[in-house]
Amino acid sequence: MFQHIAKSLEILIMSACIVFSGAVFGGAASIADGNGIVRVESAYPMAETIARLKADVAQKKLMFFTEIDQQKLAADAGIKLRPSTLLVFGNPALGSNFMSSNPVAGIDWPVRLLVIQDENGKVWAIYNDFDFIAHRHGITDRVKEFKMASEVIASITSTIK
After folding, report:
1. Residue 30 has what DSSP assignment?
2. What is the separation of C-alpha 57 from the centre of its chain, rounded to a whole number of angstroms?
3. 34: CB partners within 8 A, 6+ apart
4. In Å, what is the CA distance from 91 to each residue of 63, 68, 145, 153?
5. 5: burial class by Cβ within 10 Å (0-12, 13-18, 19+)?
6. H helices present in 25-77, as ranges
7. Are the CB atoms for 36 and 18 separated by under 8 Å?
8. How far is 14 from 156, CA to CA, in rounded Å?
9. How far apart are CA 65 and CA 111, in angstroms?
10. Which residues of 93-108 are buried (b: 16+ CB within 10 A; e: fewer)?
């Protein structure tokens, strides 16, 4: 019984921290359902949103790995999908810090930023909250690095507001 209460309290505190971090880094960002997903609404159409995000990643001299047009892949498989593009980028010197603390954290690196267009035509940039990632992997010895990663992704997504 005590373990169940402790786990519920831990989830509640983590959710509050995630919501707080979303409020600190941009106001328009929101955490969906307490699952660590941050959604930032874009003020621009899909192609311009992607171009702005990629330009800021390049300006910050981050390593850009790939752009995956998920809508095209779905179409090639005969499946209809709304616009959806995955951008993969990062800073190996920063991301490697998380993996050196817990190698399993490599599942969440490099950074993935999903750009989608919803059923109402709104464009969103979506990513995993870094505090949530730290909690997920039990990483407590990289606070400064996670803070930096949160600030960088908030800066990148601020280019589409």
Report:
1. E
2. 14
3. 11, 15, 18
4. 6, 19, 11, 12
5. exposed
6. 46-59, 70-76
7. yes
8. 24
9. 10
10. ebbebbbebbeebeeb
Tokens found for residue 59 = 């300006």
User: How far, in Å, CA of 50 to CA of 81, rounded?
Assistant: 17
CATH number at residue 33: 3.30.310.70
Residue with tokens 């992997």: 137
Residue-by-residue pLDDT tens, the chain, 161 positions: 444 433 433 433 344 443 334 433 334 566 656 789 999 999 999 999 999 999 999 999 999 999 999 999 999 999 999 999 999 999 999 999 999 999 999 999 999 999 999 999 999 999 999 999 999 999 999 999 999 999 999 999 999 99
CA dist 42 and 125 (Å) reads: 7
What is the side-by-side order of every strand in the sheet holding 123-128?
A: 29-32, 37-41, 123-128, 111-117, 84-90, 63-69
Residue span of the structural domain in which 76 resides: 2-158
Letter for the amino acid at 49?
T
Closest C-alpha to 98, from 142, 37, 143? 142
